[in-house]
Amino acid sequence: MSQPPEKTPARDTPAQGALPLGNTALETHGHGGRAGEPAAKDWPGATPAGVVYTCPMHPEVRQDHLGACPKCGMTLQPVPAGQTPPEASGASGSAAGHHHHGHERGHGHGHAQAPQAVPAAADPAQSPKPAAPGTIYTCPMHPQIRQDHPGNCPICGMTLEPLLPDLDDDNPELRDFSRRFWWTLPLTLVVLALAMFGERLHLMDMATQSWLELVLALPIVLWAGWPFFSRGWQSVVHRSPNMWTLIGLGTGAAFVYSVVATTAPEIFPASFISMGRVGVYFEAAAVIISLTLLGQVLELKARSQTSAAIKSLLGLAPKTARRIGADGSEEDVPLTHVHVGDLLRVRPGEKVPADGVVVEGASSVDESMLTGEPLPVSKREGDKVIGATLNTNGALVIRSERIGSETVLSQIVQMVAQAQRSKAPMQRMADVVAGYFVMVVVAIAIATFFIWGFFGPQPSWVFGLINAVSVLIIACPCALGLATPMSIMVATGRGATQGVLFRDAAAIENLRRVDTLVIDKTGTLTEGRPAFDRVVPAEGFTSEEVLRLAASLDQGSEHPLADAIVQAARTQGLALSKPENFESGSGIGVRGQVEGQPLALGNTVLMEQVGVAVGPLMQQAESLRSEGASVMYLAVGGRLAGLLAVSDPVKASTPEALAALKAAGLRVIMATGDGLTTAKSVGARLGIDEVHGEVKPADKLTLIERLQKEGRVVAMAGDGINDAPALAKADVGIAMGTGTDVAMNSAQITLVKGDLRGIATARGLSVGTVRNMKENLVFAFLYNGLGIPVAAGVLYPFTGWLLSPLIAALAMSLSSTSVVGNALRLRRSKV
């Protein structure tokens, strides 16, 4: 992309685009512009006839008219009769900007196409509540699997989960498995007691005992274990063997062998006979089923905690709002009845019901639940407020600007949910192993059976059967599959509560490797809210005249620098004229006519184009730039009328953030379109040694590429449209949440508050998460690598010790739970 240079008074128009997050196209609260429309309008087939409205986050909410969801406040989306809404990541967005005094133009388009639904048979044993239209279900281990109804993953057999969790915490699989476990546990204990003590106590003859164990084990295996056999059969049908294949084979082999040994013992050869009878192993089948159920219950409970962050975010929105009527009356109304433009009173201690702007009052608002900022933020007339934040002391009246799915809260929830379902690059090795794992385990089990049968001690074939069952049961592909997804789910949720939004798992994994950080100045190091400084008039002009003419021309611009000049003129009570024939030059300034006079306002390049020499004011301009101000020249009728200086103060948190980043070993570089003198002045104050000024988007791209060729892993932090190409090119792009949507479209990480301290937080979380994933993978590989040979009996020649199928079942049940439990440690780790 070739772009004009970005000179001293850098400006561009805030993007009128949208960031594709979930089912909605949304804008951030940090700048003006129209609100994004619901993404449902973007997909084909939406017609007024037969339309019902549902919530993308709570699809059980359905009604025949437009409104907001009573549970989360999101705007309901139309679902035509017979049509399924798009998946949560299926929205698309685009943004474009206009050019003003010295900023470049950039385009950014975000497209996310949801994977096609993969059919998977529902588990007949579970009987979950019917799926509401619009709900999309996915697999925690295989996020590419998506469908519009509950069921099991055709790859691994795990029960599919809704893309977005529900606040009611109802998990039909957890309820079902708990019921099966507790109802059959007494039977399992009786079967186990008979197997261990029946012969010693001589309560009955062995044949009768075998029949009694058979009767007791039947409901355990055929009812409690039915989901395992059902999923195992599905894995065969889908030609995707998984953990349930192994459990079904192991449990089925032990049970069928025992049934035949009980009903027809005479068919077995002498090599199967021990102590005068053919042994039965009903207790092995029963205990394996019960322990597997227990392991699943523990794992499901642990996994439910990984989505705790999203659930806490969903619970932030208030249920009602106090609306002020046109006659001044006030009433409490459900959040569903709040519309854009409504005046809402927020009393002390209440939550802000919607994103909006303060029109009356002053207070401090606690935004920590969304931005991670621990201190309340002062709010007064004209300031933006975020829905679901807490008003602490004063009373406010706000005008709602974004409701439902257009709020910052909904945007965060959708982005976190999307990131949680992405796959980390580190998982690829585990996926490759898992692709061959089950068949290798089955081959080892078969080899174990025959090796023991031919070469083992008597009863050799019984030893072969038991050891083969142990091999099948102890193997746990789920520990491999869950190793990174659980860590990613916890990390993205933890980041969201601290104002750091990761787009996907790759961003988390890559950020820890970054050693160089390239930072834009305006809106990143500085507040991004320029304030008018002063006017220096040329000979023959007054300060008031220069400011009035410049402000009149700047009324045609939407750039923050232009806004600062216009506001300064209005504050001084100057009468502004309407500009005509307004034009914005790409990266150099603006032109037009005011009161019949041709005007040009911009940098030295624009002055050269209109043939105006800036020499008389060059010294003053350089002096102002050395103080960190941005300078614009005004030409009137081909004459230099003066210069205007606008300052953008450095964020209070910037010095602390830069110190933390340097302490972490990062090389910090400033690259800005502002003038080189101004850039060096700001860099000197902040201790940034390497400064690049007057750069255009192509220059930023070149800088990123040069650093990458030097072997550097580069992160780029910025907030403007002109930053988008560099954000996309960098190894990790970091966007300020107070910036433009196109910048966030191009970035992998968004800092909700726009505070650079969030980069240090994100990097710490990245380091901790990758370490956690490695721990999980090492555990999963070691567990299977050591457990399977031990179950096969490799220690028997040296120790005379064999692994019981009961111990194998216990180990398998705890392995997945251990992986999830280790991932949950990230919620409390220091970052």
UniProtKB/TrEMBL annotation:
The Enzyme Commission number assigned here is 3.6.3.4
Q: Which Pfam families would you find in this protein's record?
A: E1-E2_ATPase, HMBD, Hydrolase
Q: Which residues cross the membrane?
A: 181-198, 210-229, 241-260, 280-298, 433-455, 461-484, 777-796, 802-824
Give compartment(s): Cell membrane
- Domain (Heavy metal binding) ranges: 52-79, 137-162
SUPFAM superfamilies under this entry? Calcium ATPase, transduction domain A (SSF81653), Calcium ATPase, transmembrane domain M (SSF81665), HAD-like (SSF56784)
Q: Which GO terms describe its biological process?
A: copper ion export; copper ion homeostasis
Q: Where is the composition biased (Low complexity)?
A: 111-126
Topology of the protein relative to the lipid bilayer: Multi-pass membrane protein
Entry annotated with the keyword Methyltransferase: no
The chain positions of domain P-type ATPase A read 316-416
Q: Does the keyword Transport apply?
A: no
Where are the compositionally biased (Basic residues) regions? 97-110
Q: Which domain of life is it from?
A: Bacteria
Q: Which NCBIfam families match?
A: ATPase-IB1_Cu, ATPase-IB_hvy, ATPase_P-type
Q: Which PANTHER family match?
A: ATP7, ISOFORM B, P-TYPE CU(+) TRANSPORTER
How is this protein named in the record? Cu2+-exporting ATPase
Per the UniProt entry, what species is this protein from, by scientific name? Burkholderia multivorans (strain ATCC 17616 / 249)
